[in-house]
Write a structure and sequence with these properties.
Elements (H helix, E strand, L loop, with lengths): L1 H16 L13 H9 L4 H8 L1
Length: 52
């Protein structure tokens, strides 16, 4: 339940400010892509330069 609350807060901050800083993110391969996909669909073209 706490994870849902923190994700909700993150989305609210993203909506308010246009960006968020996420600290202590796991370093496993493509973790960011998995996390973003858990929120909603992603256009790969946007994240391609960041993730590759």
């Amino acid at each position: 339940m706490a994870e849902k609350k923190s994700t909700y807060d993150l989305l609210i901050d993203f909506y308010k400010y246009g960006f968020v800083i996420i600290k202590n993110v796991p370093t496993e391969d493509k973790y960011l892509l998995k996390f973003v996909n858990s929120i909603g669909p992603v256009k790969i073209q946007i994240l391609e330069n960041i993730l590759m």
